[in-house]
Amino acid sequence: MPLPGSLAQKVHRQAAAAVGRVLAADASKQNGASIKRLALAPSNVAKRATFALICETLKYLGVIKEVWNSSDILKRNKKVKPELAYVLLYDLLFGEGLSPHGDAERVIFACKSTLKATLARLMVKRQVADVRDLLPETAKQTAPTLRHLRVNTLKISVDEALTQLRSHPSTCEVKRDDLLPEVLVLPSGTDVHNHPMVKKGSLILQGKASCLPARSLQPDPSWTVLDACAAPGNKTTHLAAMMNGKGCVMACDADARRLKRLKEAVELAGAKNVRVIHQDFLKIDRTDPSFKKGFPVLSS
Ligand SMILES: C[S@@+](CC[C@H](N)C(=O)[O-])C[C@H]1O[C@@H](n2cnc3c(N)ncnc32)[C@H](O)[C@@H]1O
To answer: Which InterPro entries match (predicted)?
Structure first.
């Protein structure tokens, strides 16, 4: 369903800011940021809609640019920033449709028939009947995203977690991951955000890729491990669990707001072997006596 006018305007600008940031980072190979993080920025509204709009605009960007570049009207109009134009063109040509609320929206909306005709010409030229066939093969593949859960073995065993999940119809299809013993897999779209085991910290919503570093390290319970960029704490609590709550995980983060989330995650996970440090890890002084017990790293 299309968003109401004023909310749609806000979402367009939030998505445009993120698209601009992604393209700039891509061009300069610097200051990268995840799309999810940009979409979920605390100041953003309608985060889910913003995230979807960023992803779809980037997916169709090649086609959008072709339409943009072959349209004289838009080339002559310098009022709308390119990244906002890309987002608006996505909504107009492929998305929910565009309504003329907002200055930039009105500019693009006024070119609606020209833009649609340009897209139609492009489809004829490429001999495709469906706009999705204009996308490169890689963008067309939409494999279902499975929901991965890490069992917090400080609180519950993998077998017990499996039994509890299998006993409920909404999670009965749970399986073990083929690679990581403490990771379980649910079909895409299964919503477990409010599951009692998640709320209690027995299960942690963590992607498979994010579970690989701790598993690859295979820390021994006698080790001291430095997690240099730790917040919000998924890998920290994974390390702590793999060390059976023993040894020491020094969890360092430079951002005070994110450090609060890290502390909450550590507490919820019951990870008593974690020492949270508010600090830029690049400035850690290895000779500081306060690190005597907790340094150096990875000593087995
Ligand atoms: C992608 S997040 C880390 C995710 C985390 N490892 C996890 O698994 O949940 C990156 C974090 O690195 C922190 N960070 C970036 N540069 C840092 C630095 N020089 N020192 C300490 N923390 C830093 C940021 O504040 C941010 O919280």
So the answer is: MeTrfase_RsmB-F_NOP2_cat, MeTrfase_RsmB-F_NOP2_dom, NSUN5_7_fdxn-like, NSUN5_RCM1_N, RCMT, SAM-dependent_MTases_sf
Give the separation between CA 226 and CA 171, rounded to whole angstroms. Answer: 35
pLDDT digits (tens, 9 = 90+) for 143-189: 567 889 999 999 999 999 999 999 999 999 999 999 999 999 999 87
The closest residue, in CA terms, to atom 6 on ligand 1 is: 230
Q: Whose Cα sits closest to atom 25 in ligand 1?
A: 255
Calculate helix-pair angle for 112-126, 82-93, nearest 10 degrees. Answer: 70
Pairing verdict, β 147-151 and 183-186: antiparallel
Q: How far is the CA of 106 from the centre of ligand 1 (A)?
A: 41
Tokens, residue 117: 């005709």
Predicted complex: ipTM over 0.95: yes
pLDDT at res. 130: 87
The proportion of the chain whose per-residue pLDDT surpasses 70, expressed as a percent, equals 91
Q: Tell me, yes or no, if the pTM score tops 0.80.
A: no
Instruction: Centre a 10 Å sphere on the Cβ of residue 65 and count the other Cβ atoms it contains.
Output: 14
Of all atoms in ligand 1, which is nearest to the CA of residue 232? 9
User: Same structural domain for residues 118 and 9?
Assistant: yes
- Domains of the chain: total: 3
Of 30, 40, 206, 253, best ligand 1 pocket probe by most atoms within 8 Å of the beta carbon? 253
- Co-location of 173 and 241 in the same domain: no
230 Cα–ligand 1 center, Å: 5
In a domain, 266, yes or no: yes
End-to-end Cα, the chain, rounded Å: 56
Domain annotation covers residue 29: yes
